[in-house]
Design brief:
Blueprint lengths: L14 H30 L11 H18 L1 E4 L17 E3 H4 L3 H4 L14
Antiparallel strand pairs: 1-2
Helix pairs in contact: 1-2
Length: about 120
């Protein structure tokens, strides 16, 4: 039976890997989306008197660094070993590689705030 799910890299996922990509990757990507929402909430307060001493550029840089760390840690693609090697130096037996291991394309890191990047059914 063929999986109808894809990794962030666009590869078909075997059913045994869907949970890892959906649950684990989904949490990390959801948190990155929440950071985008939080960033917008902070931005709305830019002209409030009580926020006059807040270093907005520094806050936004830190939030962006956190968002990128979360996105890059999410399961991104299947490991070439196919989870057949428990001592694989790339995936260490997990069967998948995170974005920070393969280099997520810049377009995905710079997605619009709140844009969903989790795995998805093929259309």
């Amino acid at each position: 039976m063929q999986s109808i799910w894809e990794s962030l890299a666009g590869e078909p996922l075997p059913l045994r890997m869907v949970e890892v990509f959906e649950d684990g990757g989904g949490h990390l990507l959801l948190w990155s989306t929440r950071i985008d929402h939080f960033r917008r909430e902070i931005g709305v307060c830019h002209n409030e008197p009580w926020a006059a001493r807040l270093d907005f550029p520094a806050v936004f840089r830190l939030l962006e660094q956190l968002r990128v760390l979360l996105v890059r840690a999410a399961p991104y693609r299947l490991c070439p070993c196919g989870k057949r090697e428990t001592c694989c130096p790339l995936c260490e037996g997990r069967g998948w590689l995170a974005g920070n291991q393969v280099g997520i394309p810049r377009a995905e890191l710079n997605a619009e705030p709140g844009e969903q990047l989790p795995t998805h059914p093929k259309s």
